[in-house]
Design goal:
Helix content is 10%, strand content 23%. By secondary structure, it is of the alpha/beta class. It has 2 domains: 140 residues, Leucine-rich repeat, LRR (right-handed beta-alpha superhelix) (Alpha-Beta Horseshoe), CATH 3.80.10; 140 residues, Ribonuclease Inhibitor (Leucine-rich repeat, LRR (right-handed beta-alpha superhelix), Alpha-Beta Horseshoe), CATH 3.80.10.10.
């Protein structure tokens, strides 16, 4: 009887053990509150399209190559519940898309891995909890408004490899305000990113290759551009209502749309003979109403149909011929 009893007890113990193991095995599909699972991420062809989870600390899966534009938009419950405070980006990511973390106001900690080459326009705009950001050596391009209005961003490390910086990339950050307090002309890697505190006559120093978009002060009356200048960004001189004359040196190859928007006092504009195309440089409906003379080089092969639509009704165009 004792043997039978032991067999019964042993059988019961084995049954309990099997049930316990089955229960333990099923726990891998249980999602703990605030944790990440693969179902939280919508990924298509290596592009992270959307995060659907509710974790405060997000670990993006390895293998993702791009954080697509608009992910995490708002950080106010529009895309998910909760507020993200930390994001871990894997080394596989090479691009952070346009407005990717826009208005993630709780985001205070994020790494930008060494393989990222591009940070898109508005990618971290209005991330009020960010206080420090380190751009890796691999990054060559920072888009317009990428870090604009990050109200606590006081430390930004930018490598020499970053040579393309969009307009207003750091507008409204303590970092830029501190730089502007030190100098009227804030230059990063040969890109003039801000001359908003400049007054009167301004000389852009030799070596500067680009004027970033929306970079110039509305209080300037005269500007001397260097031989080294290659590009004038979108809306670079927008609202420079006291500027009367602009003479470009002959190395400028690109002029962004709206570059001379609302330059109501501009009378003379000489364009570079490296230009091949003139876009909507005066901006539709906001042109240069007092323009009297425009010098166009023979190198220009194409002119935007609305280039002159909002300029003065009558002005002289000097066209050079081959």
């Amino acid at each position: 009887m004792n043997v039978m009893g032991n067999k019964v007890l042993l059988s019961g113990f084995i049954t309990i053990l099997i049930i316990s193991l089955i229960g333990f095995g099923s726990s891998k599909d249980v999602k703990a509150e605030g944790s990440n699972t693969s179902s939280d991420f919508v990924i298509e062809d290596g592009v992270l399209k959307k995060y659907k989870g509710s974790a405060t600390e997000v670990i993006i899966p390895d293998g993702v190559k791009e954080i697509g534009g608009g992910d995490f938009l708002g950080n106010n419950g529009l895309n998910y519940n909760g507020t993200i405070t930390k994001v871990v980006i894997p080394d596989s990511v090479t691009k952070i898309g346009t407005w990717a973390f826009y208005m993630s106001s709780g985001l205070s900690e994020i790494n930008i891995p060494e393989n990222v080459t591009t940070i898109g326009s508005g990618a971290f705009s209005n991330c009020d909890s960010l206080s420090e950001i380190r751009i890796p050596e691999s990054t060559t391009t920072i888009g317009s408004h990428a870090f604009s209005f990050c109200s606590n961003l006081s430390k930004i490390y930018i490598p020499e490899s970053t040579t393309t910086i969009g307009g207003d990339a750091f507008l409204g950050t303590p970092w830029l305000k501190a730089k502007e307090a030190e100098s009227d002309l804030v230059i990063v890697n040969n890109v003039l990113i801000s001359a908003r505190n400049a007054r009167g006559e301004v000389t852009v120093p030799e070596g500067v290759t680009k004027l970033a978009g929306s970079s110039m002060s509305s209080a300037i009356t005269k500007v001397t551009l260097p031989e080294s200048l290659i590009e004038i960004g979108e809306y670079a001189f927008s609202g420079c209502g006291k500027l009367e004359e602009v003479y470009m040196k002959d190395n400028v190859e690109i002029i962004g749309d709206g570059a001379f928007e609302r330059c109501k006092s501009l009378e003379v504009l000489r364009l570079s003979n490296k230009l091949t195309e003139i876009g909507d440089i005066f901006s539709y409906a906001n042109g240069c109403k007092n323009l009297k003379e425009l010098e166009i080089p023979a190198s220009v092969k194409k002119i935007h149909e609305n280039t002159f639509i909002s300029c003065a009704k009558s002005f002289t165009i000097l066209v050079h011929e081959n």
